[in-house]
Structure formats: C-alpha cells, structure tokens
Task: structure prediction
Amino acid sequence: MSTIDPTSPLRRTALNATHRAHKAKMVDFGGWDMPVEYSGLIAEHTAVRTAVGLFDVSHMGDIQLRGPGSLAAVQHLCMNDASKLAVGQAQYSAMLTPDGTFVDDVVVHKLSDNDYLIVINAGTRDKDIAWVRKQIGAMPNIHISDYSDYYTQLAIQGPKAAAALAKLTDTDLTAIKNYWFTYGKVCGLYNVMIARTGYTGEDGFEIYIPSDEPTSSRVWGEVLNAGAEFGILPCGLGARNTLRLESAMALYGHEISDTINVFEANLGRYAKLDKGSDFVGRAALAAIEAAGGPKRKLVGLEMIERGIGRDGYPVCTVAGERIGQITSGSPAPFLKKNIALAYVPVQVAALDEVVAVEIRGQLVKAKVVATPFYKRAKKST
Amino acid sequence: MAYPADHRYTREHEWISVVGSTGIVGITDYAQGSLGDIVFVDLPKVGDTLEAGKIFGSVESVKAVSDLFSPASGTVTAVNEELKDAPEQVNADANATWMLKLALKDAAELDALLSAAQYEAFIAEETGH
Result:
C-alpha cells in the first residue's frame, strides 16, 4: 500500500461534493476521501445483486502506453499475455516484482495495436506509476502517460445495469461481451469508453468520462435517473468490498501484496510463463514451480460456528495452533453467511477441511469452501 | 432525536433504565446509526457478573466490531435472545431495544452517568453540529 502523509489533505474525486450532498458516510481510503455507504451497506449490496448499483471509482488510476513499442512494454511489465488481446478486449493481469510477488493487479485494455490502457488501483497509484516508468521507461518507441486525473470512472453494476445504461447511449450494449469495451456516445458525450468490466461479480459496465465536476455530476445524476425504474442505488466502498469478497476477487494489501507470490494467491492461470517473452517476475515464478509450488495457499472459509472472522484474524488448527491468517473476512450480505479469504499451509487447503478462527481470544470453527463464494447465474440479457 | 429522559447514558453510547432494582441496558440511536447495519450481537450469559465501565460484549456491523461497556455493576438476570437471529432490531429502534437486564449492585453508580440532555449535548459535540 502507498504510504499516506498524515499532514496532507485527502484527495478527492470530482464527485466528492455530490457524495456529500447524498449525505454519504465518508472514509479515508488509501488517501482518498471516499463514500463508504449512502443508504446502507446491505441495501446497496443487495441492489447490485438484484437490480443495479452505481459506484464512483474515479480514484483508480489510468496509465496509457502508446507507440509501436507498447505491446512489448506491456508484455514485459505484466504477467498475462497481452498479445492475445484483440482491439477492444481487456484482460486481468498483474505487475510483479522480480520475486514473483505483486506490485499491483491491473486490467489491461488494448485500444489499438499501438495503444494500451492499464487500469490500476487507487491505493497504489503513485507507486505503480513510478514502477512503470522504472521498468519500461527506457524501452524504445513508447510514450507513457498518466491519465488518472483525466477520467471520472463510474461503475454501473447488476443484472439491470445494461438496461439502465442502454437508456443513455445508442451503442448496442448487447454487442459488448464480458471483458470487452468500445467507444460510444453516453449522456451526450462523444468517445466515452464503455467497458464490460467490474469488481462485483455481476454483469455491468465501467464508463470513463471527462473528470470536470459539472460533467461528472451531470452524468452521475443521469445514470441515477435512468436506473430509478430498476431500483438503482448509489453504492459506496463498503458494498464494493463485500461484493468483491463474495466473488473472491483480490484486494491489494490483503490477498495480494509484495510479500505474496502469484501461486500462493491462486492467480497462476493469469501468469503466462510460456507467452514467448520475458516479464518481470517470470524467472521467480518458474523457480517456485520447479521447487514444487507454493507452501501456503489462499482459500475460502465459511464460518460454521457463530462468529465473524475478519481481516487479520489468525487461522488455527481446531486444537488452537496458529497456522495462517484471514486476509479479508466479513458477513456476506447476499449469501447470508460469514465468509473469509485466508492463507493456510497447502496441507490444510483441501475443501471441507475444518479450521478455527481466533476471534477475540475464542476459537470459532470454519471450513474450507470453494471459491468464488457467489457466482452469478449465466443468462443472456 | 429526543433521548428518553428516564434513561441514563454512557459516553460509549449505552443507555440504562431502572425498574425497581433491575437495570435494563441497550445502545443508543446514535450508536446504531454510526455502526450501520448490525449483523451480530455478542452478549454475556445469565448469571455473569458485570462491572461498571468494563466491556461486557460486542456489537458488529458488516464493517466493524464495537465493544459494549457496562453502564453499571451487577449480575445478568436476562439476555435478549431475539437479537441472536434478529440483530437488526437494534437498528430499527435502538432506544427501545433492550440487550440485557441486570440486578444492580449499587443504584448510586447511575448518578455518575449522563442525563438525556447531557448525552444529547455530548453527541452534538462529537458530530460537530
């Protein structure tokens, strides 16, 4: 996580006044003054699972690489195989340290053969940009731009997200497949990137609009109006966290960090060691594989006795010997269970294995379950 | 929000009302509002001894755990079992939802607590209104 200077004021997105006008509860997230909830976390979480929710995620960062050398640069920087991307396609990936641990997880978008957009986390923005410049700044034929402050990024998520957004654009949203994007006119704005991506486990879109306050608040209002008939709610970081946890999606500083490697985090399927070009961290990953794989693994836990296992709580054997730790844990508002992601030794990482979570001095039983905890029903829109 | 005048209040946002020599304890509307949706209430057992100012349990929202501090000393005589399965009752009406009852050791302890007016002033200061 980036270090926060306690003497500097919190950063704000263009919608800060809008959130405050909604009477949102605000919180410091990675140095940003962000809404954690508006009407209530459970209501917001439920809206995304059953209808549609709207998030301001403008605090996230945007790095654009342009030039004939940009694919080579992305391939060197990120572990997934960007050469497999078509124009208009995106992929989940990560930037690794030379040890095969995480600098950050990212989504790489191919805008054109010479143009890639990498969306990065808010809490790691400054660190990531410095890393990118250091790793690929000397590579030929590329120009690196930090466009983070140019965009207001809105996430519209839920089974009714497409129906709501369709009222605001002539772009055929049914033609955009999952993890693909296009450009279109949205709320009267030309060339808005419309991406079928998100961090909730539901169908949904992320749109990137100009970050001036009048445009941002106008579009925010129009999305809420368009979604009103479906029951849209503005949603904060509280629901964002419980939604991504139910979907077992990683959060930097919790499931992934610079002390956790790709295989431990269960993200090996996104690391293409055989993609034909070297990337930072590749050699370390190959060595870990050759040595028999990781010694600990990220697993899903479901509390089976009464209690809530939370971030940082120790995981123990039933007898009480500490063996691991919860990275993210919370009640799951939609599943109505108490769930967690945790690192445990590979020997106890099997499904149905029973462990104990230390909750304020008490051992409370949990069992290893499959992830994701929640999977949306596959259906056509 | 008018806080019941016949209750006394702690700075940790618990309330206590007295019926005979029994104290009835809950948390305030301000507390439930700050917590958000309450999903879990951890209370002591009947027969447990509580000490004024000491932690006797916890209340959890989705996002956080909050300790509960006892307004008075005594022995627990009843616990609201409904809160096990319906903790959200506390959000619905905190000022009227009891958590436990205790046989008070010393009713004079309540004199040290805040009156409704003092509590309202206290939270006004906390929220900067």
